[in-house]
Design brief:
globular, 8-stranded mixed sheet, Rossmann fold, alpha/beta
Length: 224
């Protein structure tokens, strides 16, 4: 099922150097794959120079959701990741307009970032409306994967969580099928209040088309 051409229609420009230096990073997939140690660790100390709770959004698009979180939690840090650069330029415009200092955006393949996330580095992971790439030739591009859940189990602090939303029933089923292999993760249905925290572009889009929005709050079980 297509996700539409929303990013391709955006009218945006590359951030000026002084803005990009503060809010934008681009990590080459080729270099991440072959030379991962050349890149900084994905944690608050490395990226923000301080020890603080860190939330990572995978597939953040234009940053609506993560900017809302960052504005509400100025003492925490936030990183939005997307494999397409164009929506991230809009995300940078948004964060400048809001005057936020606790967020950066990263143009990268999320699947190659997992190796740069240290253990217990994340308070939360946001995965909302990822593309349902369920055809056989697309499955290696899925963000809903055993690799991603293995990273979540390792990288989330005890009590941290992965927020997952989708309008695609097969993708929701896939997540449920993968979860039992990760005993330190516990999937709970997203509550109505969680679903209503903030509706991003894709949330509004699919809800307006009458699609059922399903969600899980996948918690990292606290160690005894």
């Amino acid at each position: 099922m297509g996700r539409g051409r929303y990013p391709a229609r955006l009218k945006v420009t590359v951030p000026p150097p002084e803005i990009a230096e503060r809010y934008y990073r681009s990590w080459s997939a080729h270099e991440l794959y072959h030379y991962p140690a050349r890149f900084p660790l994905l944690n608050a100390e490395s990226l923000f120079g301080r020890n603080a709770p860190l939330t990572l959004e995978l597939g953040c698009a234009t940053g609506e959701y993560i900017c809302t979180l960052a504005a509400a939690q100025p003492d925490a840090c936030f990183v939005g990741v997307d494999i397409v650069a164009k929506p991230l330029y809009r995300a940078v415009e948004r964060v400048v307009e809001l005057g936020l200092e606790n967020i950066i955006f990263l143009h990268a393949d999320a699947r190659l970032l997992y190796q740069r996330i240290p253990d217990r580095a994340l308070t939360a992971i946001i995965l909302h409306f990822p593309p349902p790439l369920l055809r056989n030739r697309q499955r290696n591009q899925l963000l809903v994967s055993a690799q991603m859940l293995g990273c979540a189990e390792r990288a989330l602090v005890p009590g941290g969580y992965l927020s997952f939303l989708t309008d695609h029933p097969d993708l929701f089923t896939l997540m449920q099928e993968l979860l039992p292999a990760f005993p330190q993760l516990r999937g709970l249905p997203a509550s109505p209040s969680e679903l209503a925290v903030f509706e991003s572009h894709y949330h509004r889009r699919w809800a307006a088309r009458g699609r059922e929005i399903r969600g899980l709050r996948i918690e990292r079980i606290a160690e005894e």
